[in-house]
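Weekly modeling sync, notes
Attendees: S.R. (lead), two postdocs, one rotation student

Agenda item 3: backlog of single-chain predictions. S.R. asked that every request posted to the team notebook include the full sequence so nobody has to chase files. The rotation student volunteered to paste the first one in as an example of the format we agreed on. Action items at the bottom.

Example entry:
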Amino acid sequence: MTMASTIIHRQEPDNVVRVMFQLTHLVAADTTFKDDIRNVVPPETKSLIVDMRNVQAIDSSGLGSLLSLPRILPPNIRIRLIHLKPSVRSVVEMMHLGPTFSVD
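Predicted structure, as returned to the notebook:
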């Protein structure tokens, strides 16, 4: 595992990258994670697993940053959000993000 400023990441078999947020609040003030993710996801990546176990809260800007991931990452990448806290899961579900992300 390697650390960037807002995430820890590792390359897994079959062109999968797993990242885990070190942030506890995904809010407007913490937008550097997009650059961190872009820097750790190589073009051949087929799947990105985003482990959100540390994220306690998310605001509309944090949600917007998540929604920007398909535009800044390689085309046709599958993005999966895992280990969402109930408060974060409710925001993601309320926004109907199923077509954009797989949520586990």
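Discussion: group reviewed the output briefly. The first helix runs from residue 33 to 40.
Action items: rotation student to repeat for the remaining queue; S.R. to check formatting next week.
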